[in-house]
């Protein structure tokens, strides 16, 4: 099965009831769709992968990216989607390497969306709509800020993609702007 957007969202919600995890899934979906458009790829597929990427995290945090395979196979999801979802944990919680450009983008932007989210909520506007690259880069350099964000993964991902880190950050911000209201980052502008 190649899940539709609604099917992917239903699967995410079946295994996650945490508003934070669902919002994160929506943020990653938005950024994946944005990059798919930039790269001339399948926006629906990329969006579904983004939505479902943390499907196992709430229930099985110690087996993250491992249990995802079982859950998604049981739901009849195509192998291409499963491999992509598992690969975002490469070197962290599994050994499935990102190979396709979709997988490399997911690997790179998963952590980055967390940093951008944290940067946006610290702004007076509480919005991603007026967040700029320079503000994110300043926060990026401060290892105490959003300390749980693995900056090495972001850098490794950008290198895998042969993309400049500033470009990846800028386009991730743009993708999050597209879904600002859905992810609670429209703010008080």
From TrEMBL:
Source organism superkingdom: Bacteria
InterPro entries xrefs: HD_domain (IPR006674), HDIG_dom (IPR006675)
Domain named HD: residues: 22-89
Pfam families according to UniProt: HD (PF01966)
Name under which the protein is recorded: HDIG domain-containing protein
Organism annotation: Candidatus Cryosericum odellii
Source lineage: Bacteria, Pseudomonadati, Caldisericota/Cryosericota group, Candidatus Cryosericota, Candidatus Cryosericia
